[in-house]
Automatic annotation (TrEMBL):
Residue runs in coiled coils: none
Alphabetized InterPro entries for the sequence: NAD(P)-bd_dom_sf, SDR_DHRS6-like, SDR_fam
Protein name, UniProt field: SDR family oxidoreductase
Species of provenance: Nonomuraea monospora
Family (UniProt): Belongs to the short-chain dehydrogenases/reductases (SDR) family.
Keywords from the named record: Oxidoreductase
Length: 236
């Protein structure tokens, strides 16, 4: 990562912050983005001098354009930023059902498009999906479809943007910041179910997903692939 800059939108917490920590530890620079200044400031303080931050909302294309305007170059791009509602078709409003697409799919699509002028030929991009794409954990059809669509987006962008490399990481349930915001009983029940479902008998760790992202950043022959750091969840 020496001399390389990784831009991580959603890098102020969770998996994005774990990736930022690895980039810095490997000698690279990071620019982290998110909607909350205090969170970004604290994360950048933790990461040290090789980190800078800027507020951005992936739901707002003008905000994304201003974000990339301020970035000198993008050697690696990772876009785990998203906020959405999941649930059954029978219960969600159309707006709530569309929210994974609005935020997670189109947010990443627009981020990549607006980053294009700053990408070098040897740049790489990692999109965030989720293993619900291949094994629905429960009734949440639009969320399941959104993750599958992001995996397809990765393949489509790999074709269009080559030699820039585009890959997707599609994790299972991760015991980390996102689930810590949810009520304890919801979290514990989800982890217990996931532990029964995954071959490795537990939820994942943010560090394990971050390792998969770093592999996709670094391996110069990986493009158009989806990695599933899911403890074998999809197989059982
Ligand atoms: N954790 C899991 O179990 C899991 C499993 C499979 C897939 N995933 C995917 O991984 C993504 C990241 O998960 P995580 O565990 O790292 O959660 P996290 O800690 O909540 O990270 C999400 C980050 O994105 C930022 N963000 C959210 N919406 C944004 C927006 N519109 N524009 C810019 N930044 C935004 C958040 O900061 P602000 O709120 O301050 O903007 C936050 O720092 C999730 O969205 C999910 O799709 C997670």
């Amino acid at each position: 990562m020496n001399g390389r800059t990784a831009v991580i939108i959603g890098g102020g917490s969770g998996i994005g912050l774990a990736v930022a920590g690895r980039v810095v530890a490997a000698g690279g620079r990071v620019v982290i983005g998110g909607r909350t200044e205090a969170r970004l400031r604290a994360a950048a303080g933790e990461l040290g001098e090789a980190a800078s931050w800027r507020v951005v909302d992936t739901a707002d294309q003008a905000s994304l354009a201003a974000f990339f305007e301020a970035v000198e170059r993008v050697d690696h791009l990772f876009t785990p930023a998203a906020s959405y509602t999941t649930g059954p078709m029978r219960e969600l409003s159309d707006e709530a059902a569309a929210s994974p697409f609005t935020s997670k799919f189109w947010g990443q699509y627009h981020a990549v498009r607006l980053a294009l002028p700053k990408l070098g030929a040897d740049a790489s991009i990692v999109l965030m999906a989720g293993a619900a794409s291949v094994r629905p954990p429960g009734p949440a059809p639009a969320y399941v479809a959104c993750n599958a669509a992001i995996e397809g987006l990765g393949r489509g962008l790999a074709v269009e943007l080559a030699p820039v490399r585009v890959n997707v990481v599609s994790p299972g349930t991760v015991d980390g910041n996102l689930w810590r915001q949810r009520p304890e009983e919801v979290r514990e029940s989800a982890f217990a179910q996931y532990s029964r479902d995954a071959l490795l008998g537990r939820a994942g760790r943010e560090s394990e997903v971050a390792d998969a992202v770093m592999f996709l950043f670094a391996n110069t022959y990986m493009t158009g692939s989806t990695l599933y750091p899911d403890g074998g969840y999809a197989l059982r």
